[in-house]
Design brief:
The structure is a homodimer. Chain A is an alpha/beta fold. Chain A is 36% helix and 25% strand. The radius of gyration of chain A is 16 Å and the shape is globular.
Chain lengths: 176, 176
C-alpha cells in the first residue's frame, strides 16, 4: 500500500468506550493505517495499551489525543487528505471504492454514538459499510481491507516486531 | 448467498463484554448469518437489544444462549456444518478461502479472551484475519464479507423491515 491512512475516532467516552476504542486502534494498525487520533475524553490507559502492542508486535503506528476534531479535519484537508466518514447512512462502499482508492492520503473517521452534523459536511465521502447498524470496529476493518485489496490479510508481520505469530493449522505458535 | 452461517460467540462476560458481544451479533446479522449462539454468562439484555434491531430492521436472525458450547459444536458438526474458528494464530484467510466457501453450512466461532484448546481441535479450520491482535468483531466482519464476495455491502435492506436507511451523500434519511 502506498496510501497514507490516518484514523479519527470521535467522542471517546470513559468507561463506556474503553474496549471499543482499543479495538478501533488495533484494527487500524493491523490493516495498515499509520495512526489514530481520538477525540472525546483523554485516556492514558488506551494510549499505553495501544503503544505496548506496537512496541511488541512492531510497525510504525501512533496514537494521539485531539480535543478539537474539527480543526484536525480542516488541517488534514489542507494537507491534501481526503476525508471518509464511515456511517450507516452513507453511500455503499462499492459505489465509491475506486474513487476513494484514487486518493493517496485518507483520513477515515469513525464515530461513537451520535456524530455531529458538521462531520457529514466536512467529509468528502460519507460511506456505508452496509446500511445496517453494526459496529464502527467492523466498518473500519472492512473498509481498510477493501481499499487495500486484502493486502493485510497476508501480512505476516510488521517491521521491528519483537513478537510474531507463525500461522498454524491448530494451536498457537509465537516467535520471539 | 446460499450458505447457511451460524455464529458461536464464546465466553460472554458481564459487564465486560456487553458491547463487544452486541457488536458481534449485529455484524453477524448485517453480513448474512442466520443467528448467533453465545456461551459464558446468560444476558437477557444482550438478547433483547439484538431482537429489537431484528424487529425494526428486519431479517431472520436469532440469538440463543448455549451453556455447553462443546456439545453445540459437536451437534452442528453431526448436522453437516463445517467449523471455522477465527484466531490470530490460524492460517491466513486467503489460503483457505475457496475451501471454506465450498461448505454450504458453516459454524463460525469467535472467542473472548482465552479460547479453550478443544475449540482449536474441534474446528475444521483455524483461520486468521491477519496474524495480528485486533478484534473479534472485525475478524468476523472481514471473514463474512470475504466469504460472501462483498454481497452484503450492497444489501439495501432485509425482509420485513419496518425501518430502513436510504443511502445518502450527506446526512441521514430513514424510511419508515
Amino acid at each position: 500500500m502506498e496510501n497514507q491512512i490516518i484514523i479519527l475516532r470521535l467522542g471517546h467516552r470513559l468507561p463506556r468506550d474503553e474496549r471499543i476504542s482499543t479495538h478501533v486502534c488495533l484494527v487500524a494498525r493491523a490493516f495498515g493505517a499509520s495512526g489514530v487520533f481520538y477525540s472525546g475524553q483523554h485516556d492514558s490507559s488506551l494510549e499505553s495499551s495501544v503503544s505496548s502492542i506496537v512496541k511488541n508486535l512492531g510497525g510504525n503506528f501512533s496514537i494521539s489525543y485531539e480535543k478539537n476534531y474539527s480543526n484536525l479535519i480542516k488541517k488534514l484537508k489542507n494537507d491534501g487528505f481526503s476525508v471518509v466518514h464511515l456511517t450507516m447512512y452513507g453511500i455503499p462502499l462499492p459505489e465509491k471504492l475506486d474513487k476513494v482508492k484514487s486518493n493517496k492520503k485518507l483520513l477515515v473517521i469513525v464515530g461513537a454514538e451520535q456524530v455531529p452534523k458538521n462531520v457529514y459536511e466536512l467529509a468528502d465521502f460519507n460511506i456505508a459499510i452496509t446500511n445496517q447498524p453494526h459496529s464502527e470496529v467492523a466498518a473500519l476493518a472492512v473498509f481498510l481491507d477493501r481499499i487495500s485489496d486484502g493486502y493485510y490479510l497476508n501480512n505476516i508481520g510488521f517491521k521491528d516486531a519483537k513478537i510474531s505469530i507463525k500461522p498454524n493449522e491448530m494451536g498457537k505458535q509465537i516467535i520471539r
